[in-house]
């Protein structure tokens, strides 16, 4: 058995014969099969097993194809929901909170006169303040926003066994500087815990390994504020809180971060760190509506996949070539030259490339490029482009700049063909920022100073042609390796903020999570549907009298329709979504439909016992006993025959139920309570 990283195996795999191994196991296989690494794995003629903790619906189709999984279905799938059900992993609750500035941004025009004056006193022109909520901690920071987030955390987080201090917590921050500001804000708010309860633990922290060991093994710190370092691969079973103080753009990474809290109670050793010394679930406090953006991110990731930058460049150039096919000239010739240069970079010694050579051999010949047809561009896109992922030694700074310039020129060509105005504002800004970071004092960059100034001033873009864009790209792309690091230190505003939105995310059966608004909508739609169809509700809406039997049947119907796996309307979800905790589903219906004349569950039970007593013409002693049954039933919501021999019924004397009632009476009483149990 040999154990290796793919990076090492890439350097020496050809020292083994293809049949050397019987079995190759790839961990994190959703990453393993991309780019040059799939070349390494494909080389071996062995059984291939890929392992990943990434949810199946986020795995790229190429991964399934590589491991011969038909219909994008894993050979073996053990879901998180099943692991929770089997007790191997802990489930989670989600609480979402956002401040006013997070939700609405910070715009000078919307600030009060007092707030505008505060800014002016600090030399900040309110008219220049125009930030989106997502700019927080990237372009701008506001200490009071951090205070409000910490205050909400301390109110809502799961505490340790004492109920005094937060249980073990990981806070995910945007940047190291953001993490440091969070630590300082926490210390300012809770000086008694300064330097003890909350600490920054990331790759830029001194003694980060020692702090991580303390977080895992010792009582303090309780709160680890981190950037990337604790997102994956860190095992602290006692973690009870995850605070997302950053938006997460990747659902794969999002679920890996959630995984930091999923270790079950059985793995915990320090029970004093846990609420009530147990771990039934853990809490996610989400400050950036990551769960709300879940489906959108999922869709975007499935559409985008993992496309290497050289493949993107090649496909962009192919799109340009297709636009220029009918107007061959200097631009067409240049695009063909660029594409041929890309093809020339494909490593012919690659194992995977060798397997494809028979299909693409013609693209290396001059004759192939003398006359381009749609069939040839399809071959280039489907067969040749994917092979560029095996190119070694890619300068990413140069490649990313080249990709931006190619996309810009493509959009110009598309706009020209369609006689429209291209929307290239964001792309143009990104290119200009890259060029502005080139240090013109360097001897390698200095000869291009005039071009750089022309581009950054905006003059270059006014009438830029495809030829001029190509010349600028060829001149500046190789210089991008000298680009200075972009400094975007946010500045402090010092304005008052407030938590504006608080909501629980509904946890349905099977651990499926749903936002409160959507959950409320589904419940209300189901109730409205019942209100139109159920005869008892129709009679109630018309103000007609209904019997207790009809109301009991209504409760059973509501149990079936609202408490099923689809809606799971239990007391907890009722409180989260509707802000009420009532005794029965009929009571919930009364609240939701505002049926004031609908009796409460207590009234329904009382009516049922009234009818039962009247029907049997019981005497005073029997009636007192049955009223006690009624009270106990309302308290416990169930009653068994054996309960009738225990307190408080033994106050009526030993075996009073047998003395007061016949066996048939007792059976009928139990039948009555069973009808009411719903």
Q: What is the structure about, briefly put?
A:
With 678 residues, the chain is an alpha/beta fold. Helices cover 48% and strands 8% of the residues.
Can you characterise this structure?
This protein is an alpha/beta fold and 678 residues long. It has 5 domains: 72 residues, P-loop containing nucleotide triphosphate hydrolases (Rossmann fold, 3-Layer(aba) Sandwich), CATH 3.40.50; 207 residues, 3-Layer(aba) Sandwich (Rossmann fold); 174 residues, no CATH class; 85 residues, no CATH class; 74 residues. Helices cover 48% and strands 8% of the residues. The protein has 30 helices and 14 strands. The strands form 4 sheets. It has an 8-stranded mixed beta sheet with strand order 8-9-7-10-11-3-13-14, with helices on both faces. It has a two-stranded parallel sheet with strand order 1-2. The chain has a two-stranded antiparallel ribbon with strand order 4-5. Strand 10, helix 11 and strand 11 form a beta-alpha-beta unit. Helix 13 runs parallel beside helix 18. About 1% of the residues have low confidence.
